[in-house]
Every structure is written in structure tokens, then in C-alpha cells.
Amino acid sequence: MKVLVIGSGGREHAICRQFAQSSNIEKIYCAPGNGGIASVAQNTNIGVSEFEKLATFVKENNIDLTFVGPEVPLSEGIVDFFEAEGLKIAGPSKAAARLEASKTYSKEFMQKYNVPTAKYESFSNIDDALKYLENWEENKKVVVKADGLAAGKGVYMCNGRVDAINAVKQIMSEKVLGAAGATVVIEEFINGQELSYLIFTDGVSYAMMPASQDHKRVNDNDEGLNTGGMGAYAPAPLATENLNKKVETNIIQKVIKGIRNEKLNYKGVLYVGVIMNGQEPYVLEFNCRFGDPETQAVLPLLKTNLTDICEALLNKKLSDIKIEWKKEFAVCVVLASGGYPGSFQKGFEIKGLESITDKDTIIFHAGTKVENGKAVTSGGRVLGVTSTAADIKSAIDKVYSQVKLISFENMHYRKDIAHKAIRS
Q1: Overall fold of domain 125-182
Q2: Which of 110, 219, 411, 416 sits most deeply, having the most CB atoms within 10 A of its CB?
Q3: Eight-class DSSP state of 172
Q4: Taking the model in full, what pTM does it have?
Q5: For the ATP-grasp domain, which residue ranges apply (predicted)?
């Protein structure tokens, strides 16, 4: 088989690497790819939203399967476009991708199918939103979200009425998030631990992956600004057998029923972001693709060929395949540019990559490129370092011992990834 992976981050590096484990893979392409992905796939300089160029590339190179990494091309309808051209592609249709692309749509979907989620109100008029907040308690926490895709920057955790009013004004009046903020969702604040549940689904059946936990805040102890994720680990001990059953029964089965009832064309990965409301799991958000950096912690644990899973998805025969996972733990630590998620400098040489020789450690490139034969920084999140081990403590110790071998100017990373998993 020949495969094209669309995207350019650590998630796509993990997906390409997983395809490379399959014995029936002849060639992997990645569009546009990055400096590290070139070690497992051939990069091609086509943007993720250049559908016609991508489709032409697939036809000219006799590519059997396209796998979409990021949310933007999915929300723009790349699956519909490829299928109209008779090309095989894994991912949800534009209509199905609204589960991620519109917070209002996903909330209405959950309400319709009785999926537990925080109470909310949606507003397309700023005056209505501000009027609603006039009655909000002065110091009662509240969450304000931009309705559309905002690259992980569309959620404002507000400490009370004044904060929330400022958030609405920034989103709707100042348009700091552009078109993504034309509508806002204001929802109740839930204080609890979060978990990421990824599933494969063909729109009829589903298969759960090991539950993971992401670390969104830029600094240790969950302090500082929200980021796209500073690290992740899987499986998360918080996800007990009992909790997984609850999530499956109360959330995932209801979502799959809704996808079927709404006749949504969904053949790919669904990410369900869960928060614990006391003892009950509630849905925070959906992503219609692999999460980042959760993918870098989950995929290294996959034993079954990803190509076999994709073929089952495309043929709506997921229930016919047994998906197996390693009985290990994986911890991913993100090495970021100093200043991220705000402004940061790039172009710094990355040193020490050749020192990583541990067989249980993988370096996933996110914001890198190659200049004069050397890897240099080109983004906010630069690398994801993932180590696997038989227990979570050993995986943590191993990954941090490897992280210390890597350096670049202004490098920043959290020192407490997965520590929640070993606290008594």
C-alpha cells in the first residue's frame, strides 16, 4: 500500500511512524510534513487545505489511502472532496466534523442524545451575551468558548462576571479569534480531572483506545496559560475499569447512536474530552481526529497494524477486527520554545538528538525543519519525547532521563508530566 498523511505536527509524525510498522506499506507520503517526519515518510510541499493539489498528487502517485491529521481540512470538507473524486480517505465528512468545528452544534447534539455535559447558553449577539452575564454571580467561575475552531485558544476560564464580560468582548467585539468567535458558548464551570478518550469508529461500531491524560497549562502544577498540550500519558490510572464502562455506556454509545441517527458519514477517529463532575464523567469537547499530544502517548502502545484498522474503517467492518494494545505505559513530554504559547523565537539548532539511543524512547518532531543538514526549531511545540515502560513510574523516569540529553536555546518543558498518576 501507499499512504498519504495530511499534516505537519507531532501527531502526524506519530501516525506516519505507526503506518511504517505495517509490513504491507510500500511508501508513506506526508503533506506538508516536517524535518523529523522525513525519516519515515516523503514530505511533499502541499498545504493541508489545497484539496485539488492533494487529490492530483494522490492520483499521480497511485496512493491507496489518505489519512487526515488536523481539524481544519476536515472542517472544510476534504473527505467529501476526496470521496467525490473516488479516492479512499479516513476521516469524518464536513457535516460530521461540526462536532468539533461548532461548539453550539456539539452541545445541541449532546442535548438531543442525552450525553452528559455542562449546562450552557449560546449567543450570536454580543448584547444578548452581555445581558445574560449581568445576572451572573460576581465571583462564580464560568467558561466562555468561541464557537468555531481557534487552534486550542478559544476557551476562557473566567473567575467571575467581570472576567466573563471581558472574554465575551475580546471574542465578539475585538474579534481576537476572528470568525471563530462570531458565536460564543457560555457554560457552567466544572472542577474536576480531565481525561481523553480516543476511539476508532466507522459510524456504526467503535473501538476504544487506552484513555490518556493531557497537560494543557504551560507550567508545572497546571499553572500559566493554556497551550495545545505540554505532554500526555497513557493509559491513565484514573481511567479505572468502572469509569471506562461508565464512559462507554453513558457517552460513547450515545454518541455513536447519534452519528447513526443523524446519518453522519464518519470513518476515522473521534476524541472525547471528558471531565469528572464528582463521580460522573461529562463531555468537555469533541475532536474529530487524533488529539495532540495524546496521539504520541497512545499510538506507541498499538500492536495491531494501523493499515488493517483503516481498511476496516473504510469498509465499515471495524467490528470484524480485534485491536490489540501493549500492556505498557507511555509518557510524552513536549519540548517547547520559550515564550510559547505567546511570542517566541525560532531557528535555533536542536542538539543531542543523536544521543537518544534507548529502544523504548521515540522522538516525535512537531515544530522543526532541516537547515544545512541540521534540525532547527520552527514552531512553538518543537518535539515530543515519548518513553514506554512496564509501569508508569519507570516510564516517567526514563522519559526525563532522555529529555536531559536534548537542548536548544530557550527550551522549555514541564517537569511534572504524569505525576498525577503516581500521587497517592
Answers
A1: Dna Ligase; domain 1 (3.30.1490)
A2: 110
A3: I
A4: 0.95
A5: 107-315
